[in-house]
């Protein structure tokens, strides 16, 4: 596993363990622990964490809309 992949998995673990969401404070917490990650990468991993935490049948329409919105930011 590449170092880059390890950093991303570490970010994912931080996001899940601290139950972080889309807000500046969450981004700052991850940046403090892994400064080399960019804001878009952190947001991508917050999105990934949400997908991992919700089985498809538990994704409400609101959560699906939010995930889609963040996916389309690029």
Elements, N to C (H/E): HHHH
| Strands, total number | 0
Percentage beta strand = under 5%
Measured as a percent range, the helix fraction is 55-70%
Which stretches are poorly predicted, pLDDT < 50 over at least 5 residues?
A: none
Category by helix and strand content: mainly alpha
Global outline: globular
Quote the average pLDDT.
80
Query: The biggest beta sheet, please?
Result: none
Using only C-alpha atoms, the radius of gyration works out to 12 Å
Number of helices in the DSSP assignment: 4
Essential attributes:
mainly alpha, 74 residues, 0% strand, globular, single chain
Provide a descriptive summary of the structure in words.
It is a single chain. The chain is mainly alpha-helical. Helices cover 69% and strands 0% of the residues. The protein has helices at 3-17, 24-33, 39-53, 61-71. Helix 1 crosses helix 3.
Short précis:
The protein has helices spanning 3-17, 24-33, 39-53, 61-71. By secondary structure, the chain is mainly α.
List strands and helices in order, with pairings.
Layout: H1 3-17, H2 24-33, H3 39-53, H4 61-71
